Amino acid sequence: MNQNLGKYIILAGLTLLIIGVLVYFFWDKLEWIGKLPGDISFEKGNTKIYFPVVTMILLSVLLNIILYIVRRFF
């Protein structure tokens, strides 16, 4: 096993822990996520289909910026 792999697994775990704590304690402040203009939602009878297009684009851009900064300085 590579020692760097262990470091990446620990980093991924800490990242998920931080995200989980933020969602748990601040969900009432984050309710706008998934309800942005451009997110597609179809509802007919008991069936609801939801495509969070804009939310996923925003999340992708934010993650790319964070990863760029992390790679740049580390």
Automatic annotation (TrEMBL):
<feature type="transmembrane region" description="Helical">
    <location>
        <begin position="49"/>
        <end position="70"/>
    </location>
</feature>
<keyword id="KW-1133">Transmembrane helix</keyword>
<keyword id="KW-0812">Transmembrane</keyword>
<dbReference type="InterPro" id="IPR021320">
    <property type="entry name" value="DUF2905"/>
</dbReference>
<protein>
    <submittedName>
        <fullName>DUF2905 domain-containing protein</fullName>
    </submittedName>
</protein>
<keyword id="KW-0472">Membrane</keyword>
<feature type="transmembrane region" description="Helical">
    <location>
        <begin position="7"/>
        <end position="27"/>
    </location>
</feature>
<dbReference type="Pfam" id="PF11146">
    <property type="entry name" value="DUF2905"/>
</dbReference>
